[in-house]
Design a protein that fits this description.
single chain; about 450 residues; alpha/beta; Rossmann fold; Helicase, Ruva Protein, domain 3; 3 domains; 6-stranded mixed sheet; 19 helices; about 40% helix; globular
Amino acid sequence: MTALLLSDAMTQVLIVEPDAAARAQLRSILESNGFSVAEPAGAALDARSLESMDVSGYPCVVASAEGCRDRGIDVFALCPGIPVILIAHRPDVRAAVSAMKRGAADYLPLPAEPDELAAAIERCIAERRRLGGDLADRQDFPMVGDSAPMQALYERIRKIGPTDSTVLIRGESGTGKELVARALHACSRRANAPMISLNCATIPPRIIETELFGYSPADARPDTARRGLLEAADGGTLFLDEIGELGLEAQARLLRVLQAGELRRFGSTETLPVDVRLITATHRDLDKLITNGQFREDLYYRLNVVAIEVPPLRERGEDVLKLAEAILERARSKLGKQSLHFSEPARQAMLDYRWPGNVRELENAIERAVILCDGDGIPPDLLAIDAGPARPPEPPPPGAEQTSLEDYFVSFVLAHQDSLTETELAEKLGISRKSLWERRQRLNIPRKRTRQRGPRRDAQ
């Protein structure tokens, strides 16, 4: 198989075609449309050599449908994030549908119409340039920050977004994992299709399977059938937050959907094809859940094709101030306090604080300060955070490991519950009192009874 390099002053297109006559025809078409074509060093191109190439700079790939299949080349997997135009020597409607479902940008017969091929390449180039812009400046990309961890995150989204790969997003609670999922969807070919989100921790186990897979009892009227979220997201993206909370039975059904691309509603014998990109997120240690028999290992490998780590706010440096200004602007508009601004001590306090509740805690602190502030400058005390770095929780016992946010939660509560009220604990963690109570119950951390206070020692 031979690779040709199509180049103009601004772009390069990789062409993968094993047949010499077809290569010559493509070269003629492209040159007649004003492109120059060159053949790079190393004419023989197989799966291994294509995998070793840096394809990230190409705006698209033009590949032979039959040639790639016959040589075992999965051009979609080997060129992640790059639009693929398939050229078919023997065009077939079913093959075309399958190719488009896999993510092909176009499916054209050979001999290709010159104008049609050129137009397809130009569409890929334009789309690639649109997706390759500065994500932080896009209106459909509401993430804020330009620190090194965030720049690395943006670059990963740029590469992964245009693919159909399943993505597992990891990160502490409150870091903005759903925003990352929405950015991935906005960068994909599915951007004009729906993205549906579900937090698995908020739906009871007996209900979540119906929510996901639908309900269609065989002996009931057709109008009682109910579509699940997987059907509703057909052609688009389904985002499942807190995937670690999904029950084992639902995990088995979800695995079937990922393996076969089809589902069966509860009560029905009919299988339905679905084309859904699945993005999941968790703050829990899935490896630990697998060891404990709470999560299927085969499903984990299906979900973890590509992983993204969302950095906690404490690692993002001065991004906290950019986020704070954006949050303050929304709060000013909402509450009609346009003259409000952060005092310098408040800005420094936000930089010094470790933000265990991440962006969610920052939002709560700023909204509270805007509501309570009487003047124009917000002082640090209204943020209700420590002026200096937050005191870290007591270290766990020797040999224990803090492998998840739950470990952090347990150690933080145990370290501070004697000195803080429940309201203060919840504020420090960036959660509500109700959430604090629920987590105490689930993690078996009973609240200590308040003892009757005696006389102060220094008064005796």
